[in-house]
Amino acid sequence: FLSTPVALEISVVKVEPTAPLDKVCLLGCGITTGYGAAVKTAKVEEGSTVAVFGLGGVGLSVIQGAKACGAKRIIGVDINPGKFPMATKFGATEFVNPNDHPSTPLQQVLVDLTDGGVDYSFECIGNIGLMRAALECTHKGWGVSTIIGVAGAGQEISTRPFQLVTGRTWKGSAFGGFKGRSELPGLVEKYTKGELDIDSYVTHRFPVEEINRAFEVMHEGTW
């Protein structure tokens, strides 16, 4: 392992010196990406209904952002029910497990659950089938679906044009729409003021010598 990392100047951000680096380092991607997708890219409105596809670190951050915006209903969508308690802690109000609805398209499940569709949806996995479902579960006339997950190289997304000409909007989000050099310090400040939860994302700690075990635990997907 290297003792001195080398990085481009544009990738380095000066932050509050008292901020714990073992926590704020998580703002380098996942938390910022999900939180910003809700707050900056989609601009979730107070009282709205939100669906979040995928309850990993990014999805949990979307939930945290949606809650901060005042969303009334936040629906977590995941095939692993073990993730639901953590999502509840971040602000999810209800859950849908696609495996519980084998004969009904997922988008229809969500449309029925919300009496017409959600106001905002977020795909946090990188599954092109779910990207389509996330769009089509939003409400006609004003629904906004934001793609965050990175699909495999060469894959393409599709939907019927009718889904868009009836008023839905499809967006993409990179780094949550934040400008790293100028805006990341603001997120660090939010954390130090207790306005942004980072601590809850840290579920395990390993010394460098156990890095392989750390990857194993991550792949197990357990808390």
UniProtKB/TrEMBL annotation:
Is Metal-binding there in the keyword field? Answer: yes
Q: Which domain of life is it from?
A: Eukaryota
Which coenzymes or cofactors are required?
A: Zn(2+)
Stored Pfam families: ADH_zinc_N
The answer to keyword Zinc applying to this record is: yes
The GO terms this record gives for MF are: S-(hydroxymethyl)glutathione dehydrogenase [NAD(P)+] activity; zinc ion binding
Q: Which key words tag this protein in UniProt?
A: Metal-binding, NAD, Zinc
Question: In its UniProt record, which GO terms are filed under biological process?
Answer: formaldehyde catabolic process
Q: Where is the Alcohol dehydrogenase-like C-terminal domain?
A: 57-190
This protein's GO cellular component annotations are:
cytosol
What the entry lists under PANTHER family is as follows: ALCOHOL DEHYDROGENASE, ALCOHOL DEHYDROGENASE CLASS-3
Protein name, entry field:
Alcohol dehydrogenase-like C-terminal domain-containing protein
Q: Please name the source species.
A: Blyttiomyces helicus
